[in-house]
Amino acid sequence: MKSNTPRSQPRALGPLAVLAFCLMMIAASRGMGETYGVFLLPLTESYDWNRASVTSVFSVYMVSFGFGSLLSGLVFDRLGPRFNYIIGLSLLAGCYGFAGHLKSLFSFYLVLGICGGIGSAMVGIVPTQSLIARWFKQRRATALSIAYSGQGIGVMLLAPAAQIAIDAHGWEASYKLASYGFIGCLIMILIMPWKRISSGAPHHEENGQVPKIKSLELGKAGSQKTLGLSLREAIFRPEFWGFFTIFGASAVAVFGVSLQTVAYLIDQGFDPVSAAFVFGLIGMLTILGIAITGILAERFPRHIIATASYTLTAVGIVALACLQFYQNWILLIVFIICFGLSAGARGPIITAQMAELFAGRGLASIFGATSIGNGCGAATGAFLAGYSYDLTGSYSAGFGISLLFVCIGLSMFWAIPGIRHNRIS
Question: Where are the domains of the chain?
Fold first, then answer.
């Protein structure tokens, strides 16, 4: 009798290896991008720019990230993931390598903003979602939540490291160190077995070949079979614009707070290293929050889990806002726990749901297109927070805007039937 044991271990290790790789790429790219909040004050002091000007660089980064996500999806669907990672890591290595030599605000827009944003998008959640969809048919939401937690891992590790490096060597040398890290990742990418990685899980193979998708049943109870929606078809669906709005509104709410957290805490009397540590601690809790959300989303209705997540975000924002009036550790701890557990928690809900509703030929492109909402929302939130501070000398208006968009994002989970019931009719 033939034993299946020799093949079982490779089959188990393959998905785990792909998951670990995706997690590492998100941690490095998004983690480095979101440490811009640590560089905020050093850049302000070096160039004597106002807060809105410095945050506008991150706004350009996030807009580029959004449109780069669409490009990432198109490249993935047409050329495969290898090209995503080669292009993305080349851009990231280049932009951080040149960052220390930039002199003007426009050059920061072009290098850190546009090149950094597109580079992060090319190696981020768009190729991750599509690769995991190929390797995980069961526990997909859990796998996506683990991969998505790379963003929190990156912030947790890189934010304090960046602050220490800035204190020791200056912000220019700190960006150069990041460039060396991405060069190392690029070398690794060039020698990886991409044909095998692209093919997906072994149990999808027949006679050594990966079959093309012949049909896909949309929804849980529907009987209509199709190759899956293309991007052109998806943009006429309310679910597409619902996810677009969720991405955008959530990003306004989160990035209107997170990018300014370090500067805000320093304004409240905390030393820079402690403020960066708080930022990193939020990233650590984001890992736990994303994991918990992914597990709960497989057991309970997703709109209920999303509601709980948005509620935690709102409580965290209110606690942080109150800190400027009542400076005590209890409010800070409430902010860290509530905001940290919920900041990225909508990610695995959205990615898993889109992988089910839009599975097929256009998944990567559709996800990339809706991610434009994430980029534009993050850019808007970051810029409005900085601009309102310059106008008023306070972050109160920015906190109010973030709370408004928490409500807008939450409403999409309840108002659009396809998202609420996880079924396209």
Answer: 19-191+224-420
Confidence check: pLDDT of 96 > 70: yes
d(CA 57, CA 369): 22
User: Whole-angstrom Cα distance, residue 260 to residue 164?
Assistant: 19
Cα separation, 344 vs 251, in Å, equals 9
Alpha-carbon span 20 to 14, nearest angstrom: 10
Q: Is the pLDDT of residue 199 over 80?
A: yes
Question: What distance, in Å, lies between the first and last C-alpha atoms of the chain?
Answer: 47
**Token couple for 213:** 């998708």
To 10 degrees, what angle do helices 5-34 and 140-148 make? 40
User: In the structure encoding, which two tokens stand for residue 421, read together?
Assistant: 């019931």
Question: Average pLDDT for residues 211-225, to the nearest whole number?
Answer: 39
Q: Are 150 and 157 in contact (CB under 8 A)?
A: no
Region for 393 from its dihedrals, namely left if φ exceeds 0, alpha if ψ lies in -120 to 50, beta otherwise: left
pLDDT tens-place string over residues 266-308: 888 888 878 878 887 887 788 888 888 878 887 889 899 999 9
Written as six digits, the tokens of 251 are 């990003």
- Tell me how far apart the alpha carbons of residues 12 and 167 are, in angstroms, rounded to a whole number: 44
Express each pLDDT in 106-163 by its tens digit.
Answer: 999 999 999 999 999 999 888 988 898 888 877 777 788 788 888 778 888 888 888 8
pLDDT of residue 12: 67
Do residues 36 and 379 touch, judged by C-beta distance below 8 A? no
Q: Which two tokens stand for residue 45?
A: 């002091």
Q: Supply 292's token pair.
A: 């918990």
Q: Do 76 and 198 contact (CB within 8 A), yes or no?
A: no
Tokens coding 46: 């070096």
Which CATH number fits the domain 19-191+224-420, given the four candidates 1.10.357.10, 3.40.50.11540, 1.10.3720.10, 1.20.1250.20?
1.20.1250.20
